[in-house]
Design brief:
The protein contains 20 helices and no strands. The protein has helices at 10-32, 37-44, 48-51, 53-65, 69-76, 78-97, 102-131, 136-164, 168-172, 174-188, 202-221, 232-254, 268-298, 303-331, 337-349, 360-384, 394-439, 443-474, 476-479, 500-509.
Length: 510
């Protein structure tokens, strides 16, 4: 290991371990559930557009609660806030396992998300204060490791659980982990200071939270029971959501202590990086929602196989993560992120041409390529978002980019679910005809109709993945305006000879 950087120290390592444990639990839960959605849809006898709220509701809860993190930490102290977040997430997980209906599960998922959304930003705040500016880059690199491992372990673990036992264990598995995290956090994390007089931006919260909820809910209703964007319920929800968000933006620019500090967008690089993070969050979470349904519904694979087939994306990201961090430190984000964004598009194209018989190895390689693109784009993009910001701006920047990523994922998941549900509905008449042919013992006719239905579903998945391609392509343009030099300033400064990612991985390996 290079000798040019100061060791993190035992105390900071212990704190980082606790934060990583909590963060891994939260991120794993975002990806572990996706392979269980088809089983949930069948068990609860609901439509795809309804069951997608198990994912969308969780992501939306994350986005809603993240802005509260700064106030919660200042008001109650970082350790107490972290304990509350872990406890809320653990209780929500236990309740999800006992859910008796889709509506109950969605409600418990929202409770779970309210805790999960605070885990990472509170953990980052704790470590940033303990590490100081000179070690923040490396510590944040350690916290970022679960973001890479989650897409690998989550789907595989979820698929194994659903195949061998029951989907309820997908949620109950968090309970013992949460209890361990609570015990360690209580023992290891410092008490820290708190300010009982710190005020919450109640007006901002009252505007932003319902605005986001109305926007995503309105979008998810498109395609349900024949509803379109012209349907009164849909356009009223969308208009109300957009209006509340616009009003919030006006309020936040005038408030002395706003819920979200929109003044950060005066920094050109932060604005560009935020746009990219929003679009890539949509492309990442949207595709994670679609992929298990393709393997399980169209290909008839088990949840375990579906989970294994999603692992190549995470493996691709790990392959290039260290190189991408080092390279972007030396030549700037503009030389790396656009290439990664283009590779994401390239890796997604194969899924626009899916058929019922396309070899799985082709799809696995394509997803591995897509993961390489993610690895090249995401870490350098996150680092670039801090360029030019002061040390005091970093926590607010982290909160803002986290919310944008979750909102992008929520909106994209809802939109793709609507598009896929429309394609599913086109197959319903064929499914009726197949049943009629089977009742008439006309095996030939039933087979012909089954082939036709499979081809129709393939076309539907392909058309939906074209929207993923479009979203990923849209992310390329703003990346061309990222900084091309390596001088970032602020807490992200460190020797260009070793990226924060490299140093973080070296610390974990010790």
């Amino acid at each position: 290991m290079a000798s040019t950087h100061e060791p993190l120290g035992r105390e900071l390592r212990n704190q980082a371990t606790v934060v990583v444990l909590g963060t891994m639990m939260s991120i794993l839960d975002t990806t572990i559930v996706v392979v269980a959605l088809d089983s949930l849809r069948k068990d609860f006898h609901v439509s795809l557009s309804t069951i997608q709220w198990v994912t969308t509701g969780y992501l939306l809860a994350l986005a809603i609660v993240i802005p509260l993190t700064g106030w919660v930490v200042d008001r109650f102290g970082a350790r107490n806030a972290f304990l509350f977040a872990i406890g809320c997430f653990t209780i929500g997980s236990a309740l999800c396992g006992f859910a008796w209906s889709a509506a109950a599960l969605i409600g418990f998922r929202i409770l779970q998300g309210l805790g999960g959304g605070m885990i990472m930003p509170i953990g980052q705040t704790i470590l940033a204060r303990a590490a100081g500016p000179e070690r923040m880059g490396r510590v944040m690199g350690v916290v970022g490791v679960p973001t890479v491992l989650g897409p690998i372990l989550g789907p595989v673990l979820g698929g194994l659980i659903v195949t061998v036992t029951t989907w309820r264990l997908v949620f109950w598995v968090n309970v013992p982990i949460g209890i361990v995290a609570l015990i360690l956090a209580y023992k290891v994390l410092p008490r820290g200071e708190h300010n009982a007089a710190h005020k919450l931006d109640v007006v901002g919260f009252a505007l932003l939270s319902p605005g986001l909820a109305a926007l995503v809910y309105g979008l998810s209703e498109v395609g349900v029971n024949g509803q379109t964007f012209a349907t009164t319920k849909v356009w009223v929800l969308l208009a109300a959501g957009l209006a509340l968000i616009v009003i919030f933006c006006g309020w936040a620019l005038r408030a002395s202590v706003p819920l979200l500090d929109l003044r950060l967008f005066r920094h050109r690089t932060f604005s560009i990086a935020s746009i990219c993070i929003f679009l890539m969050g949509g492309a990442l979470y949207g595709a994670l929602f679609l992929l298990p349904f393709y393997y399980q519904v169209l290909r008839g694979q088990s949840a375990l196989v579906a989970g294994l087939m999603m692992a190549p994306q995470g493996l691709g990201a790990i392959t290039v993560m260290r190189w991408a961090g080092n390279r972007s430190d030396k030549v700037g984000a503009r030389a790396v992120v656009p290439i990664g964004s283009a590779i994401i598009v390239l890796g997604t194209l194969a899924y626009t041409q899916v058929t019922p018989t396309i070899p799985l190895w082709i799809l696995a390689i394509s997803l591995y390529v897509r993961g390489i693109g993610m690895g090249l784009a995401m870490m350098p993009l996150t680092a670039a978002s801090y360029r030019g910001l002061s040390h005091g701006d970093v926590p607010r920047a982290t909160t803002t980019t986290s919310i944008l990523r979750q909102i992008g994922g929520s909106v994209a998941t809802a939109a793709f679910a609507v598009l896929l549900q429309r394609e599913f509905e086109k197959v319903v008449p064929l499914q009726r005809q197949i049943k009629e042919a089977e009742l008439a013992h006309d095996a030939t006719r039933a087979h012909e109709l089954s082939v036709q239905a499979a081809n129709q579903l393939s076309h539907g998945f392909g058309m939906t993945f074209w929207w993923v391609v479009a979203l990923s392509t849209a992310a390329i343009l703003p990346t061309l305006f990222l900084p091309k030099n390596t001088k970032r300033g602020g807490p992200e400064d460190h020797s260009p000879e070793e990226s924060s990612v490299e140093l973080a991985l070296e610390e974990l390996a010790e």
